[in-house]
Amino acid sequence: MKRIAIILLTLTSILFVQHVPEGLAKASNELSLEEKYEQRLTLYEKMEAITNVPWYYLAAVDTYERGLRRAQKDRPAEEGLIAIYFSPQQWVGPLNPDLEDTNPLSISMFNGVGLDGNGDGVADRNNDEDVLYTFARYLESYGFKEEDFRIALWEYYQREQSVNIIYGHANVYKTFKTLDLDDHTFPLPLHHNYSYRSTWGDRRGWGGRRIHEGTDIFANYNVPVMATAYGIVEIKGWNKYGGWRIGVRDLDNVYHYYAHLSGFEKGVEKGTVVAPGDVIGYVGSSGYGKPGTQGKFPPHLHYGMYRDNGYTEWSFDPYPSLKSWERKAYQERKKKK
């Protein structure tokens, strides 16, 4: 009987494990960015085939968690391709005395979430396939409709903003059908006259004492304003400080804030998926008052960046990013000549 059980387990493992592309055995830190994208997508698609959870949902959660690892000091950096994080207590069960337990049976007995995702009989918290399979099974348990996905995320994160960010990531991946979405660009066309300097942290007085949470790029009225990153429009409308403003959430969980616009590009609405270089609005001088207030300062784009850490968001200086994107844009323009 024991021999039969071993044979059955071996056959199950052979059937369960799919072909892995050459090079997957390489450590993730030895892979090029393109190789990482390719192998992550292979894992997402494998789990989609097993669980019927769309690959872009899995990619969205993984991307969000990768951003949390960068933003939260108490989370270690991911060692593999997948960034989804389970604490030892989550994985093995809160009352399990063995925090290194990898036995799927005992983990289940202690109400741990860890599952064996590659058929090797081990549920390893540091194994990419086990981690991704565990989260995919969690999502699968809620159903496959869009609303089911949102409910599952709410139950897991207990935060509406986290649900919205992940849902936005999923829409971006679904739209572009690739993981290679790291490009950025400067927010104004280079052939227009503009100027800017580092103004993040400067004092502002209108509406009460506060600091300036961005960089002002001065330009003429109606100069096109472009998305700097791949992302989704999270907010569009009036703000008494920023006037006509639009906010785009990128795949690093960073919120890009474009303010004091004269107007918006036609067709850009909340929920619109954008790419670097897409026109989203136009430089103006709106703000500092009721809707429609204009002209209380020279026309310029206020550009801010805010990072989400799973609990809250905070502003950070966008100037270094702007200078980097501007240099890259000039280099690319020079190559085309």
UniProtKB/TrEMBL annotation:
<dbReference type="InterPro" id="IPR016047">
    <property type="entry name" value="M23ase_b-sheet_dom"/>
</dbReference>
<dbReference type="InterPro" id="IPR050570">
    <property type="entry name" value="Cell_wall_metabolism_enzyme"/>
</dbReference>
<keyword id="KW-0732">Signal</keyword>
<dbReference type="Pfam" id="PF01551">
    <property type="entry name" value="Peptidase_M23"/>
</dbReference>
<feature type="domain" description="M23ase beta-sheet core">
    <location>
        <begin position="211"/>
        <end position="309"/>
    </location>
</feature>
<protein>
    <submittedName>
        <fullName>BH3436 protein</fullName>
    </submittedName>
</protein>
<dbReference type="InterPro" id="IPR011055">
    <property type="entry name" value="Dup_hybrid_motif"/>
</dbReference>
<dbReference type="GO" id="GO:0004222">
    <property type="term" value="F:metalloendopeptidase activity"/>
</dbReference>
